């Protein structure tokens, strides 16, 4: 009961008639005994040499479930959407047509509730808790239980891809795996892409390079020593005093001094533009 209440019971996918265990398919369960202990063999009349049983399946390979089950008379027309249950009988067995069992099947993805179980009782006065009365059939009472069900999660099938299909893939090929190297050994030095001149730099010059160590950071001046021209070296040149005197005579002009010194009023141009052109006397 706890499994049914929690919705962990598979639904019925098919109901059928069968003569015996030998005729019953492997994925079907035969109901041989009723809930009150009687034999569930539907044997009626003197001309019948063998009986027949109800059986059911819960195999979800067909992706359909039994959403409803009914018992109708042979004089009633079959309801819309229903069908007679299948028969797995031997040549000596025949099913009575006075009462027929019909079922309605639906795709498993289209329904939330289905028939979870069916049972038989030989005494009509006996009631089964949590089961619904379906109908009387040849001295037996058919019961069913409906409810929510849980279908098993479909498993993804591994796909086999041929070598020709792999060659058509747009993905970049993965890098080859590095060979195994013990942890205790020192790391293998990577081959540098820098020039020999770059290797001759001092450690201080290397520290001043960008952190990414990319080739874009290398310029033409890397490694070239910087020194001041001798003419401007005050300590090495004997003309230090003369150079100092020349530097002291430099006068720094302000913006106003420059405008006053180089101011031009354009008066000559303005007077020339105002001149009246001489007229020719006739």
UniProtKB/TrEMBL annotation:
Single Gene Ontology BP annotation: viral budding
Disordered: region residues: 174-196
Transmembrane regions listed in the UniProt entry: none
Family annotation (InterPro entries): MABP, MVB12A, MVB12A/B, UMA
Gene3D superfamilies named among the record's database cross-references: 2.100.10.50
Membrane topology summary: Peripheral membrane protein
GO molecular function: SH3 domain binding
CC per GO annotation: cytosol; ESCRT I complex; late endosome membrane
Keywords of this entry: Cytoplasm, Endosome, Membrane, Protein transport, SH3-binding, Transport
Domain of life: Eukaryota
Domain UMA: 221-273
Domain named MABP: residues: 9-148
Location within or outside the cell: Cytoplasm; Late endosome membrane
Reported function: Component of the ESCRT-I complex, a regulator of vesicular trafficking process. Required for the sorting of endocytic ubiquitinated cargos into multivesicular bodies.
PANTHER family, A to Z: MULTIVESICULAR BODY SUBUNIT 12A
Recorded family membership: Belongs to the MVB12 family.
Name the UniProt record assigns to this protein: Multivesicular body subunit 12A
Organism: Poecilia latipinna (sailfin molly)
